[in-house]
Amino acid sequence: MIDLGLFAEADHAYGLSDPERCSPLVQWSRSRALIGLGDWSNAWPLAELRFQLATLPEVAFPLPHWQGWPRVTRVVVWDEQGFGDSLQALRWLPVALQQVGHITVYVRPPMVRLLRVGLSWLGQRLIVGSRDEIRREIIQDSCHGSLLSLPTRLGCKKLSPGHVLRLPVSLTGFSRRHSIGLVWESGRYLNDPHQALEYRRKSLPPDVRERLKVALESRGFVLLSLQLGDSVVPHGADFLQQAQALFNCHLLLTVDTAAAHLAGALDFPAWLMLPWSSDSRWQRGRSTTPLYRSLKLFRQPRPGDWDGMLQSLLKQFDQVRSEGTWLR
What we know:
Elements lengths: L6 H11 L6 H13 L3 H8 L26 E5 L4 H7 L2 H5 L5 E6 L1 H10 L7 E5 L5 H5 L3 E3 L3 H4 L15 H4 L6 E5 L9 H10 L3 H13 L3 E4 L13 H8 L4 E5 L2 H9 L3 E5 L20 E5 L6 H18 L5
Parallel strand pairs: 1-2, 1-4, 2-3, 5-6, 5-7, 7-8, 8-9
Helix pairs in contact: 1-2, 2-3, 4-13, 6-12, 11-14, 12-13
């Protein structure tokens, strides 16, 4: 039912299947339905039950977490899910620094430089390190936990603003007014059957990508591929390099992948192209998202109907051009 966008019905079904709320799997699944309903404050504690599952998350450090909380002055947090999830969770670091004196956040190497630069405005009380640098004694001797667990630990009742990354002008340069960045492929984790299915569902097929390119070029725009592995963002590039490439454009068109969260965290204008059955964080039936103020959402009107989504997106292009508002 979640895939159908029937979040209230899914929440009700989970309540019937686990009336005592003692199944970690059911309650973790219920958190997804609550996110779809925008009930963030009740979803976040239930999402913590993922640590009681055998399959999620693979790279988390073993329990117990958050020992000594909240009577601590220093905290270690680490990433443990997709890059997009980590970028989405950065919003909690400024909130956490209002309660904790010093925070060290360990992320995977492709994110390190971006966070060191983009979060430097938070001052020296926040240190960013690579997960490759974590030693077992650092975890054993610290109050530590997942970056994604912060809203529960902080007792947050609503979303904090997501545009927390700030890059200096020397790194961003100037956008080219008629250049549109494109990220057309989601995370390529094809060894896992579920992830492979998600990849196919979220990514633009080659023929749709070509029609989009032709349509935009006929309207006078230049389409730049910001897909990892292409010439603008070559293999081995990190998120800081992708962010710099982003600022050479006026707008990003992206599928549901980390680039969407990168744009949102940078407060960069992006149009997110979603399949009909999208992740519950994007909810249903809306063209904006409470996660990021700079994103607009374009959805398939029917399952698999990328052409219908493309028609809606191009109509919006033509409308803003005729109104003289460009992409504001």
